[in-house]
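During the second year of the project, the team shifted from modelling isolated chains to modelling whole assemblies. The rationale, set out in the original proposal, was that interfaces cannot be judged from single-chain predictions alone. As a representative example for this report, we include one of the complexes processed in the last quarter. Its constituent sequences, exactly as entered into the pipeline, are reproduced here:
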Amino acid sequence: MNDGAPDFDAFKQQWEARPFLAALGIEVERLEDGFARLAMPRNHITVGGIRNSINGGVVASFGELAAKVALSTMLGPGESIESVVDVGLSFLTSARGNPTIAEGRVLRKGGRLCVCDVDITDGEHGGMNAKARVSYAIKRPPRER
Amino acid sequence: MPSVPDRSQWVQATNSRPLFVALGITGDDVSEGAARYRVDPIEGDGGVVDTLAITTAADQCLVTAASTLIEQGREEMNGTAEMNLTYVAEPQGAVIVEGTVVHKGSHLTVITVEAMDQAGAIVATGRGSYAIRPLHPAGTSGAGA
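Output from the structure prediction step:
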């Protein structure tokens, strides 16, 4: 992680306190520079897709979230995530593992845009459920004059 | 024969789903080839709808819009195949997400999705495809998943 970034435990707590993660029971399992691994349980909220799988919309937003957390590990001083720009997913198999895992990786972080790649897999059997590509706009610190 | 649900029953069933309650999503309208959901900010979101909830609602629009054109007794739903969303603005207040079928083939249905905030500004636009498959009569072998 960049200098000045919070330590893992503080960072994990900060993310897991956010309403979306709390509502779905998502845990941040691992953070590295430009990488995040998240776990989502099967429960009465997340299940609702075809063939008793995790709801497809939840899978999509889970991928979006993993990218966001991965990017957050690379923000420099004064930088913040402005907004998501693009989310693209290919659904490969029904997500029926417990948990479902999302691993987000930063492919490139530019000055204003960041592109991430996300693998969503079955945490029990290891099969790939979905592949996502997510890009975020970065807010830069104001220039000093 | 298409399977358009009764609107009031659909709204009631949709709005009791734990996932939608947790994320502030409610069913707004459904008709042949179209579906509309509303997303409200949830507690702790600071009055702004999280894009993660919009992404979830967008997939739900695909599913519901596609489901209204399924021919009962001849076809069945087979899962979202892919989805792409481009976010263009931060939402102000509640967001309406609408999906419209643009093409229904024998194996894929293509749906466009648009999200607008209360001021009528477009928040996100996208497209997805939903897989459908023929329903085989009992005793005959069907296609794989």
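Chain B has a mean pLDDT of 90. The CA atoms of residues 75 and 135 of chain B lie 5 Å apart.
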